[in-house]
Design brief:
single chain, 221 residues, alpha/beta, Rossmann fold, 7-stranded mixed sheet
């Protein structure tokens, strides 16, 4: 990605940030390039530094049971899968065979395909079909904004006591604080952010990584 996806980063500063952290390897760069070839929709892909952070976090937490809502071309899934503990598994929820096919090919190249289960179906149906037990120790939401609250509700109910939920796009390119922005997605993100802050079951932190990333954990963990 040549343009910084984050809030307030110049291109020079973004390149400096990338140069002073874990850089995408050959497989990741191939996936970035394949996604960029799709055109403007490539903006849905997470930024490289976010992927590095997610791998780092999953590895630090020793994640064994992860869930992702919204896979697109598979960069975030690759990042999570690489951070899983031995024997760990990632369940990916998406509705696109075409976009996820790009991810499948790169998961295979990276040697993590055996750690990932992809279910092509509405994510809310996949989540509701999961056992109602607190076994998810890492989750990532990056899908249709209008359903963020519904995905959150299903995952929180199944989040392990020490589990962590990550939610993408919570700053929404700065539109969350733009009084003139009144589109459905912006209103949905604002409402979701308010929901998390008001939820007494959890504690959260919002980070200015890429387009804004909220980390949530249960207060009793």
């Amino acid at each position: 990605m040549s343009d910084p996806k984050g809030i307030g980063l110049s291109d020079d500063l973004h390149q400096y940030l990338l140069a002073n952290g874990s850089r995408p390897d050959a497989v990741q760069q191939s996936l970035i390039d394949a996604t960029a070839a799709l055109g403007p929709v490539a903006r849905m892909q997470i930024a490289p530094e976010q992927g590095a952070f997610m791998t780092f976090l999953a590895r630090t937490l020793g994640v064994r049971n992860a869930v992702e809502v919204g896979t697109f071309t598979g960069y975030s899934a690759l990042a999570i899968a690489r951070g899983l503990a031995p024997g760990g598994r990632l369940l990916c929820c998406d509705v696109s065979e075409n976009w996820t096919a790009i991810g499948r090919a790169h998961w295979q190249q990276a040697g993590v395909a055996d750690r990932i289960e992809l279910r092509i179906a509405p994510a809310i149906e996949t989540l509701r079909a999961l056992p109602r037990e607190p076994t998810i120790d890492f989750a990532f939401i990056d899908a249709d904004k209008g359903n963020y609250a519904a995905y959150y509700a299903e995952i929180i109910e199944r989040l392990a006591p020490t589990g962590v939920l990550l939610v993408d796009n919570v700053l929404w390119s700065g539109r969350v604080v733009d009084a003139s922005a009144d589109d459905d997605d912006t209103r949905a993100i604002r409402a979701f952010n308010e929901l998390v802050v008001a939820d007494r079951r959890v504690e959260s932190v919002m980070l200015p990584i890429s387009d804004g990333l909220t980390l949530v954990r249960l207060t009793g963990g």
